[in-house]
Design a protein that fits this description.
The complex is a heterodimer. By secondary structure, chain A is an alpha+beta fold. Helices cover about 30% and strands about 25% of the residues of chain A. In chain A, the strands form 4 sheets. A 5-stranded antiparallel β-sheet of chain A has the order 4-5-10-6-7. In chain A, strands 11-12-13-14 form a 4-stranded antiparallel β-sheet, with helices on both faces. In chain A, strand 12 (about 190-200) and strand 13 form a beta hairpin. The relative contact order of chain A is 0.12. Chain B is an alpha+beta fold. Chain B has a 5-stranded mixed β-sheet, with helices on one face. The longest helix of chain B is centred in the C-terminal third of the chain and has 14 residues, at about 105-115. The radius of gyration of chain B is 15 Å and the shape is globular. Chain B starts with a strand and ends with a helix. The chains are: A alpha+beta, B alpha+beta.
């Protein structure tokens, strides 16, 4: 399977990338681990691919006040071994370790994953669960988008056609875990559950339980009201719309979400 | 067409490529390095694994233009003359293959693993090879080969 023909430009800076995005049917290429399969299947046929994969200035993790700033082009393998995240936000390396396989983790980026917005993306769920902020640059300058506003649909985000994600900012977590059940090694999550204690509050998110990553608001409410992990977990599927597909039925996913939420809460 | 220059197995190459050309086809068809196999063609099986700047990458899931300026190593680049690379030698000695189609990918993924972690546990080896599929049911001996290569200081 060969992609349809496209033009190719490698951007030397974020500003240059934003300028190049002004054309019709342009697309950003970061690590390419999601985009290249999509191009090969010809689900996308951009006229111009703007390669930002070499913007190494967007590969970093650093403390920024009470938040941790992660450059959009930081690769999954770098998240796995980052000392700042290991100390202050270990749920990210824990989840990144189970994304795809080593070859994918050597190339895939946190920004690319968020911007691709696959409802089965592990990192998107974590960004939503932690109330991350996503920083985007466009022709009008920079803006910050709350994760709750960012994921607008399957493979759809709040990014404008000429905007590029440059950074994500997450809070330090006191404790957190990401549990993922997949039918095969290196597969997408049948269901994934993120649970983290942030500023004394437990926040819970779900992967593959709807068209976007979701917060398990019923679970959070129950816990805030003093509910036990088991009581709270019973509400895990509230407000979700889990898909049925070759991996699992909708009912199975709803059941699995409850089991995984209970296990995750018991680990906190 | 886009002009790229890259190093493959220590040799410099310059080429004009179509931006949509996948790295695996550049290696196989432009450079004639047919040791890198196309298996599933959907970035699942790992048969096309090569090293880009020392790290394992699925070359059916990379564009040749993305490798511009990079150092690529394929299975052909591992042996020193007649002397097999320690990972190749270990695959040979441990009978870590049957049909052999997946083998170049497994060897490259193993070389990448041992560069990152020279003394992996069995669980770490199995985890590190999750992106490579063998359909002849050869995993047991593949894991043994990686352990042997680690002991040999690959």
């Amino acid at each position: 399977m060969i992609p349809a023909a496209f033009d190719y430009e490698r951007a030397g800076s974020v500003d240059e990338a934003v300028e190049l995005l002004a054309g019709e049917d342009t697309k950003l290429l970061a690590g390419g681990q999601s985009l290249i399969p999509v191009l090969r299947l010809r689900f996308a046929r951009p006229s111009l691919l703007v390669d930002v994969g070499r913007l190494d200035e967007l590969r970093y993790v650093r403390e920024d006040g009470d938040r941790i700033a992660i450059g959009a082009l930081t690769r999954h393998a770098e998240l796995v071994r980052d000392p700042v995240l290991a100390q202050r936000c270990p749920i990210i390396p824990q989840a990144a370790r189970h994304i795809g396989d080593p070859q994918v983790r050597h190339r895939g980026t946190i920004g690319g994953s968020a911007a691709h917005a696959d409802p089965a993306s592990d990192l998107s769920t974590i960004l939503l669960t932690l109330d991350a902020e996503l920083v985007a640059r466009g022709p009008g300058g920079e803006r910050t988008i709350a994760a709750a506003e960012f994921f607008t649909g399957p493979f759809e985000t709040a990014l404008g056609p000429q905007e590029m994600l440059t950074e994500v900012r997450v809070p330090a977590v006191e404790t957190g875990t990401y549990l993922k059940l997949a039918r095969r090694s290196a597969d997408w999550a049948t269901v994934g559950v993120a649970a983290a204690r942030v500023d004394g509050r437990v926040q819970v998110g779900l992967t593959s339980m709807g068209m976007t990553p979701l917060r398990a608001r019923g679970v959070e409410e129950s816990l805030a009201g003093g509910g036990s992990p088991a009581d709270a977990a019973a509400r895990a599927a509230e407000g979700t719309d889990p898909p049925g597909d070759v991996s699992a039925s909708s009912e199975y996913r709803a059941h699995l979400a409850q089991v995984l939420v209970r296990r995750a809460l018991e680990q906190l | 067409m886009t002009r790229i220059s890259l190093t493959v197995n220590g040799e410099s190459h310059e080429a004009e490529v179509e931006p949509r050309q996948l790295l695996v086809y550049f290696l196989r068809e432009e450079l004639g390095l047919k040791g890198t196999n196309v298996g599933c063609d959907t970035s699942s099986c790992g048969a096309c694994t090569v090293l880009v700047d020392g790290e394992s990458v699925k070359s059916c899931n990379q564009l040749a233009v993305q490798a511009d300026g990079c150092e690529v190593t394929t299975i052909e680049g591992l042996a020193q003359g007649d002397e097999l690379h320690p990972v190749q030698q270990a695959f040979h000695e441990q009978h870590a293959l049957q049909c052999g189609y997946c083998t170049p990918g497994f060897v490259m993924a193993s070389v990448s693993l041992l560069a990152e972690n020279p003394d992996p546990s069995e669980a770490e080896i199995r985890g590190a090879l999750e992106g490579n599929l063998c359909r002849c049911t050869g995993y047991h001996n593949i894991v043994e080969a990686v352990r042997a290569a680690a002991r040999a200081g690959a």
